[in-house]
Amino acid sequence: MKLETAIEIFNKLESRSDSKREKKVYNTYIAILSDLKARNLTSEEVDKIEKKLDGFDLDQSYQQKLRYFKKNLELFKSYLKDAFSLTPEGYYKGIGIAIGMMFGLIFGTSLGTAFGLSSGVSSGLGLGMMAGMIIGMMIGQAKDAEAVKEGRVYSVSL
């Protein structure tokens, strides 16, 4: 299925839908496909993407459209990451925050009990999570900026 055809299908689905959640999923597809269409991809790369879209059977009607298209959207994003090293905007920032909070939780707990902060573990948790989140966000933003420089980021919103 051609990229233009897929964009047309999602535009039709979006215009027929009354659900905000469905419209959001369709608009995400439209944004990603439009971004891919605007890129200078080789014909081989475009063919690979179009073959992946063929596997989704977008022109079929489904009982649970939202569930079906959300699942396939995640598969499509994963495919773009694996096959072309393309990531959505803010990808590394989100991962950095999550990892930073996890390590902050671990270190905050241990430091809170070791130094006997005023309320022990709970204040250490808060401080550790906050510090980890900030550090993770800064590292993630740096990685996102690097990915933007390399042209490996695609837009997920119109």
> Which strand order spans the largest sheet, edge to edge or round the barrel?
1-2
H/E element order = HHHHEHHE
Pick out the low-confidence regions: none
Structural Rg: 21 Å
* Counted beta strands: 2
**Structural class determined from secondary elements:** mainly alpha
Give the helix level as a range of percent.
over 70%
Total DSSP helices: 6
- Shape descriptor: elongated
Give the averaged pLDDT, no decimals: 88
Task: Offer a quick outline of the entry.
This protein is 75% helix and 3% strand. It is mainly alpha-helical.
Describe the structure.
With 158 residues, the protein is mostly helical. The two termini are 22 Å apart. It has a two-stranded parallel sheet with strand order 1-2. It has six helices and two strands, in the order ααααβααβ.
What keywords describe this structure?
158 residues, mainly alpha, 6 helices, elongated
SSE blueprint and pairings:
Blueprint: H1 3-16, H2 20-38, H3 43-54, H4 65-84, E1 87-88, H5 91-114, H6 121-149, E2 153-154
Helix pairs in contact: 1-2, 2-4, 3-4, 5-6
